Q: What sequence folds into this?
């Protein structure tokens, strides 16, 4: 996984000092590969221990591992994953975050009810997740219409959870539901493609799959299997709370 992808995956762990170091690394990546941890700390106006902690937050074994990985990235051109199902699933497993999965499962288990909302193909995936939650008796409602989800949010409180699926993270009606939940301090779990987007910015827990948009003859044929992988994995974590 490339440095920028690690930063996005573990964004929730990072603080302002980490962001400052990351900005420096991104700007001077080639220089960093030849620097000692002491030199990098000096250039980034921090201390070596902070660099080491950042390296581990990003999933590296330590600074040397991070530095060597950056060197490899500079030497080897980035290859966009193939869009076949195997490659998309493989990439999805790579970006799955156990800590985020456990946190999402905990919030689902401790909530009084779960509201699910998604449009188009995402609606079918919401129904699949709803069934998995109902297996252990979790009060769950899956909504397919705007007025239904907004009404349910009006009736809900902070002990509810809103689970939203939108691969783009930009679907207007989904964002409207998210904004309503934010107004009422209802926690949001989002599932989107692995990219920065408005929906993940509003969510308490961001879950990602690797499913870039794909069209053919004007039809959206984006793969849904990566979404199912995440939902099935989350369900297995959730069932352990029963």
A:
């Amino acid at each position: 996984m490339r440095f920028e992808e690690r930063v996005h995956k573990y964004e929730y762990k990072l603080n302002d000092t980490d962001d400052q170091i990351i900005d420096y690394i991104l700007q001077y990546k080639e220089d960093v590969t030849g620097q000692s941890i002491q030199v990098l700390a000096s250039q980034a106006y921090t201390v070596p221990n902070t660099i080491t902690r950042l390296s581990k937050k990003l999933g590296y074994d330590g600074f040397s591992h991070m530095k060597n990985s950056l060197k490899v990235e500079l030497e080897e051109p980035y290859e966009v994953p193939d869009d076949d199902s195997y490659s998309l699933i493989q990439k999805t497993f790579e970006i799955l975050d156990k800590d985020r999965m456990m946190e999402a499962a905990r919030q689902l288990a401790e909530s009084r009810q779960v509201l699910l909302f998604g449009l188009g193909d995402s609606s079918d995936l919401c129904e699949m997740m709803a069934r998995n939650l109902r297996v252990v008796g979790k009060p769950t409602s899956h909504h397919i219409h705007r007025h239904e989800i907004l009404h349910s949010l009006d009736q809900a409180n902070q002990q509810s959870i809103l689970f939203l699926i939108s691969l783009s993270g930009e679907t207007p009606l989904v964002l409207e539901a998210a904004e309503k939940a934010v107004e009422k301090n209802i926690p949001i779990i989002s599932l989107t493609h692995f990219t920065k987007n408005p929906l993940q910015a509003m969510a308490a827990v961001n879950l990602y799959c690797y499913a870039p948009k794909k069209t053919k003859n004007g039809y959206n044929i984006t793969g849904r299997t990566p979404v199912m992988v995440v939902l099935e994995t989350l369900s297995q974590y959730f069932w352990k709370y029963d």
